[in-house]
Every structure is written in structure tokens, then in C-alpha cells.
Amino acid sequence: MTDKTHLVDAVTGHRRMRRLRKSDWQRRMVLENRLTVDDLIWPIFIVPGSNIMDPIAAMPGVFRMSVDKAVDAAKEAADLGIPALATFPNIDLSLRDETGSQILDANNLINQTTAAIKKAVPNIGIITDVALDPFTSHGHDGILRDGEIVNDETVEQIVKAAIAQANAGSDIIAPSDMMDGRIGAIRQGLDAAGHQDVGIMSYATKFASCHYGPYREAISTSGLLKGDKKTYYIDPANGTEAVRDAALDVEEGADMLMVKPGLPYLDICWRIKEAFGLPVFAYQVSGEYSQIKAAAANGWIDGERAMLETLLCFKRAGCDGILTYFAPEVARLLAKQG
């Protein structure tokens, strides 16, 4: 028999990586990560009124919805198999003040939305945020006193808000404010109010990022924000600090951990998954979404492929799920693929 050994066989020690890539069935058979509808959480924006679908200019395909339309969105999500929604209110500017007191109103916009969705679609998950930025006149996530975001007073307020949200039917409280001690305080407050079954998805590592701009337009805080949020968000340069921050949230009782933004921080997703073993979620934030949409609209990239590739990257980085504005679009696409 003629020896057909090639120089490449000698160089590689007869190990050829392309063997498992040569056909579609083989590539599918050895696929390490898959994106499914179960990985998706759909963030939606709520406004007062009825029959409102207000397009957000900086986020093509995303709308501010009145409560009735949010209920319709929840029904759509349930039909598509999306497990949960995350709701973010855009309240009337006249209701916003220095302390974000409207968040404590049991019948505020976010709690109205939760109650309405739970009544119409009881089996879909509702995730709510207790950060104060949609409720403050200055756009910060906490209470502003003499130019400083005060930590402890803010924590006291968001604990009350968390209880009100749980009373309205929220399944998971997801505090994004990054105040010290908030996770343990919320856990104690929820338990004392009889909400032991309400989970906490901690925004464990939320960075002082440039990628939040379209979101701030969506909730009408971009023109309100005084200064920046660097005294409470994490510096993008600091990975070890981010892991330490997540560790404190784990010790305080977080059930799940979130990394925000998503794609620029895949290393953090991996590090906290490896370190703590809790369910980890990434928030593919508004700036990430808008970049893909804008590039696709200009014909610079294949938008559908970019959407799916970025979401799959979160899975590869150890994420158990992704908050993404692409959720309904991806769910419909996955359903067609069967």
C-alpha cells in the first residue's frame, strides 16, 4: 500500500481539527453551545396612557408601550415561548423628584404593568428594577443630597420599592442601582414581608459604560442626568473589582447574577460563572442593540447573523440567559428554524 502520509500529518501528529468540520451533520453533532428561546428575556418600556406604541428613534424596532400594549407584548412573548419580561417605566416628568418618591407608590406605572400582565398572562415571568433613575428629577439611580448619591438612604427606599413590586406580582427583583448592601437589605425586606419566593437577580457588575445612551432616551433621563454615575457604577478597566462586587452580592443572598453591558464584558461573564456557579445573565444593552441595527441598516453587516452570533457568544461565555431587545425577533427566527 502506498504511504499517503503528508507533511501536514507529521507536523500535526495526525491530529486534524478540520475532520469534525467537513460536513453540516458533523458540525451540528459536536456543537458546544446552542441558543434557544429559553435563553431570552425581553426588556420593554412602559408609558402612561392607552393604545400607545411610541417608536424609539435610537432603537429601531423598539417601542414605548402603554400598559394595555405591554399586556399584548406579554401575550406575544408567551406565544413565542419567551420565559420572562423585564419592565422599565417612563413616567411623567411632573412625577419625578429629588428622591424618586414615585417608586414607592403601590399603583405606580411599573406596578400597574406587573399587575395587568400577571392577570392576563399569569405564567410569564416579570422582572422589575428598583433603581430610582426613572423616578428622579436628576436621572441618578439613587437619592441625591448636596451633590452626592447617598447610599444608605437610597437602600432604605429601594427595599420599600422592592416590597411594593413584589406585592404587585413581580417574580424577580433586579436592582440595578449598585448601592452597597442593597442585595442583603432587599432579601431581608422581602422575607419580612412574606415574599420568600421572590428571587433577586443582582446587577452584580454594572459598568460606567458609554453603551446606555439609547436606553436613557427610552426612559427620558438623558436630558436630566446631572454629572455621571462613576461613584457607584464600576470602572470599565476593573475586572477584579467587578468579581469582588459580585462576591458580596452572592454572600448577601443573590439568586442570580447579571453583567451589564454584555458583549464588551464577556470576560466578566466567564469569571463570575466560574467563581460562583450561580445562574449568570448578560444584558445586551441598548447601545449594543442599536449598533447592530444601524450597521445592518447601512448594509455594512448582516444584521440577522450579527444578532445571532452575539447572543451565542454570551452562551459560550457561560451565561444562562440574555436580556435582549432582539428577543421577539430571535424567538420568531428560532421557531422557523424548528
Automatic annotation (TrEMBL):
It holds the Pfam family ALAD. SMART domains: ALAD. It catalyses: 2 5-aminolevulinate = porphobilinogen + 2 H2O + H(+). Keywords: Heme biosynthesis, Lyase, Porphyrin biosynthesis. GO terms for molecular function: porphobilinogen synthase activity. The keyword Lyase applies. It is an enzyme of class 4 (lyase). Homooctamer. NCBIfam families: PRK09283.1 (NF006762). Belongs to the ALAD family. This is Delta-aminolevulinic acid dehydratase. The gene is hemB.
